[in-house]
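Minutes, project check-in
Item: structure for the 214-residue chain
Input as provided by the requester:
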Amino acid sequence: MSTWVNAKPLHDLWASLDNLSTAGFVWNDSQASTVNGVPLRVQLFRSRNSAIEAARLLSGRIDLFQHIVTSPGLIRLSGYAGNAHWLAEIEPVSSGAVGRVSSLVISDATASGSHSPHPAPSPLSWLPAGARRLLHHVADPAGASGPNQSIYAIDMRPAALAAHIASALRKQAWLCETGCSSTEGHQRWRRHGNELFLFIQARAAGAVVYIHID
């Protein structure tokens, strides 16, 4: 089947999947991440329909899915729309079927434009210059609420990185609750009701820091 190029914004395509709720689909909250700067969105579902029927209903969305692959216990649909690659995975269960739908942006124009439903966050100002974000995850794709998690790679040894972060956070009125003297391990900070959890670990060339902000 030839590729179907859909000009609709990505968020409109996601919203249109809600129409399948009337066909026995129940959608969980979606999860948004950026992996190496590429926006990824995943949404789990369950269906009272069999896996084959659920796949048939999803494949009816030829604007999203143009290909199908089956293997024992799993059906995959894939396609291209809204400047993103779409993938649906469907598994049979005793009550019907479960699965997930994901979209991975493959166009720089979409990633940097208003069509992206989950734009990349601004860099954390208290990290040293040159910090490279390896992963970013938010519970709310719109970024309006909820915790977010990031992993950064930095070309500094853990002790120097910990000292830099501690100095920068204190200048921004963060108060360290635990792990203040840790140069490699866990730290917990608090400011204005927000919590910041850090985990610093050495790597071959520098360090990585896991960041959770709630």
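Outcome recorded: The chain has four helices and 13 strands.
No further action items on this chain.
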